Amino acid sequence: MTIKTTFMTAAIALAATPTLANDVVRISGWGGDNIVVVNSLINEVLDDDLKAAGITVEYEPVEGDFAQILTNALSAGTAPDAFYVDSFWAYPIFESGKIDPVPADNQDVADALLPALNQAFTYEGQLMGIAKDFNTLAVQYDMDIFDDAGVDYPDMDDDWHDFRTKLQQVQAELDDVYGICVVPDYARFAAFALATGWQPINDQGHTVLDDRFREAFEFYVTLPDENAGVLATDLGQGWTGGCFGNGDTAVAMEGAWMIGFLRDQAPNKYYSTVGIPKHPETGDRGNLVFTVAWGVAADSDVKDSAHKVVELLTSEKAQQWVLESGLALPSREALADNDFFNGDSTAAITSRVVFEGASDGQVEPFQFGEYGGEWKAIVDEALSAALLKERSIDEAIAHAQEQFDRLTGR
Amino acid sequence: MTETSSNSVQTTLASGRLSDRPDARREQAAVRRRQASTLVLMYGVLISIATVLLGTFLFALLASVKEDPLEQPFRFWFAQINPVNWAGAWEQGREGSGNAWWGGFSPGGEVTFHLTYAAPVGEELAAPAIEIPRRRPGTGMAAAVYTDFAVDYASDLDIRREDGPLYEFTNKDGVTEQWQQATWHVRFRYEGEGPRIERVPFSSQAPRSQTLIDATLPPTRMERRGRVASWENVTPGVLGYVFNNYRRVFKESVDLNTGDSLFMSWFQNSLLISLGRVALTLVLATTGGYALARLKFPGQRAVFFTMLVSMMIPIQVTFISNYLVIREINLLNTPWAVIIVLVVSAQVLIMKQFFESVPREIEEAALMDGAGYWTTFYKVILPMSKPALITITIMAFQGAWNDFFWPLVLINSPPSAFALPVGLLSLRNAYGGAGDWSLILAGAFMSTVPVLILFMVFQRYIVDNPIASGSKE
Membrane topology type, per the record (chain B) (predicted)? Predict the structure, then answer.
């Protein structure tokens, strides 16, 4: 082989080798357990895949108000290349045009996800983000408290009345324990409201607080009066999980994020998880789906690499690892049959119940389209007014209806 | 003085010593009572104000060293400030790592921990189930940073029981019972080589009929309705025990890409921003104030009026335009953006008033000696303006150090670029919005230190009225 031929062969071989991107992709999301998940994915699980793609990932978690910081960064053009997008505040971000739609290359990843999750991130017919995980509500109960009170544990067949009766019995038996912490928050109340068959926004695009809503509203805000619960603020807490973690209440109504919280704050807690109680007449459970996607900044200089990183972070390999670590619930439909869900550890039980919650009964995504937080604030205000006795139940609902009429039309 | 009392005094003087007369003595006593009551009232008001102002400070300080700063009811006496526990923490730290101050668990360490349980006579006093759990410290970033666990290195766990004397226990119903007690001495070692582990979590589970009445260190929390006593760290060392939250601020808030402490980055950023703003404020306030006070130029009144108006405009009105300008000159996410966004009208006004109170004769004397405007300003006027300059320095530093709005708007990435107030906000973690208040409080408390030092060093200058000082002839 002549020198010339050798050079030509080498040149052809080099040209045939796939070029590496050599891009640095900045990704960001919020803190808590997510830091461990993403950090481990980048540095352990996907390390080889990222190297093969020639991509270096810089992870910048934000332990604060992520939506606010992201909004500022998007406005300034300094946003990370890929970042979390919560379904709750996704709409205005999509509307701003600051998110690059999911490219056709990633469509197979999107097709593998639970359809309800894709729906939450679809804007004007385009998929804007790939859901990374999701959560729903479930009831966590402290088995020591129920044992000491001599009351049966909550179970999957409980309806609202059974649930309340058990909480009343616990509260009556134990001086230092309440049934549940009640919070003026639609994100918890919705589990009851939706179970009645009530629709937050009806087919005409309006919100109507009808008798079904009133039934759930009355059940929820009278839990403290019925000696089945206490206002969370009376215990210096802002959420049901805080009261539960301290051992002040028998149950909490939270998602799988409780696993990490209790592991850190009450590591020896002896608890388990069941589904949300059913409506006594419809027999349905109500629930919300909280989901978060990876979005790619439209202004990013490394959009292709950012999409590649998102593809890897939501790959089956990554999600399998996340699930088996007990750190988050996967968004891929195929992982519903994973052995992890059949385990008998508290984390496995909680994950299974929360996973099943997404397709059990009347389930809505935790998002309110163009109305966003403004819609939720109206219900929260009504709940707060009724719980604090500032308004009667009827007055609180009537006032909320007036506000909805202005917001969504009659 | 009233006419009656005047007459009385005259009469008294005529007839001898004031205190010899019974009515005069009564009057003196009444005066003393009035003085005393005025004194009590005055001190009462001062103490009340001090309590309100310092009380919150004290609350924050105490809460910042507690394991659970949100505990209700608030306790003023708790484990971290009990000297008995300091001694225990010292000894445990020494045993675990040879470092009695900061504790830990190092190769060669041998730790003995004592637990005393009691139960009514007749009940079985069973050995507790001891565990060194694989528990990662804190949340969020800490979980990513700490990868070594004490359970992987602790070995040779040995438990020895020692029965104690019977004692009388009065229960909540007032009934006195005979109780038995036993102490379990739990010992474990760090054999072989390995890293220094910062914490050794520990838990002890006993039947509900048994009560933990004593331990080398009080448990961090009782779980499972009294069944499980749980310790975050049984080898803390005395400083690690009392100031654990403060240590966490440095160690559990790190840049995952570089491993550097985020808190230190935020501190340095805030310091740079504050010093930059102070320097800029001093330059603008002194030169602007001097020009308005002494120089005559067209439009002087308009400038002064504009300056007054600018004081009345809230920053929210101008923030979008300021933001856009800073974005266009590529200063976003840099400390310089926050340094240059400042309004110094008030400081210019203070300096103008101060310079106007300086006698013109002093400047005229300097001019007569051949000094120009700049020399007069730099070498004569400025040295005389020390009280005013220090006041402005402190005001500017405090304002910049505590500024939240501009750093939040102008610096949002990466987290290591945050200023301290914004960084502290980010110490909240993500469990449904619940915050790690131990971390936030400790961080917030440390953030007050530079301003406190500044106030302590320069407080006498703040008490002095700069204008009054400057106007002395």
Answer: Multi-pass membrane protein
